[in-house]
Amino acid sequence: MLYMLDTNICIYLIKRRSDELLERMRVFRTGEIVVSVVTVAELQYGVSKSENKERNQAALESFLLPLEIANFSFEETVVYGNVRAELERRGQTIGPLDTMIAAHALSLDVPLVTNNTREFERVKGLRVEDWTK
């Protein structure tokens, strides 16, 4: 695996909001892009609260089909605890699910692809890339 996608990038791709982003994704083979199970949970929440659940569920499943979904294991919980404590010490907290996603990318030693760079750049050691620009 080479990259982890953040929730907002997944939404961009599902809704086809960026031709450049879609083109960039085409160069990767199956298994080179990973999505955290935390991101999948966030996306599933979006489907559950949407008005067109069936269509959105089908779109989500189709999007996830070629991607590797990374489970959140004990190793990631240790990294999460350290990241969250460090952010709190510095007074630079981010949302709890974003903290989990950041910890997951750190634990797997992969860059996180997001257009929310301002928030994720607070996490020391996390490599962040914005493919929407």
- Poorly predicted regions: none
CATH architecture assignment: 3-Layer(aba) Sandwich
Helix fraction, binned, reads: 55-70%
State the CATH topology: Rossmann fold
Query: What would the average pLDDT be, to the nearest integer?
Result: 94
Sum up the overall morphology in one term: globular
Domain PIN: 1-121
Keywords: Hydrolase, Magnesium, Metal-binding, Nuclease, Toxin, Toxin-antitoxin system
Function: Toxic component of a toxin-antitoxin (TA) system. An RNase.
InterPro entries: PIN-like_dom_sf (IPR029060), PIN_dom (IPR002716), Type_II_TA_system_RNase (IPR050556), VapC_family (IPR022907)
Description:
Residues 1-121 form the PIN domain. One of its GO terms (molecular function) is toxin activity. This is Ribonuclease VapC. 56% of the residues lie in helices and 11% in strands. It is an alpha/beta fold. The protein has a single domain, classed as Rossmann fold. A 5-stranded parallel sheet has the order 3-2-1-4-5. The chain starts with a strand and ends with a strand.
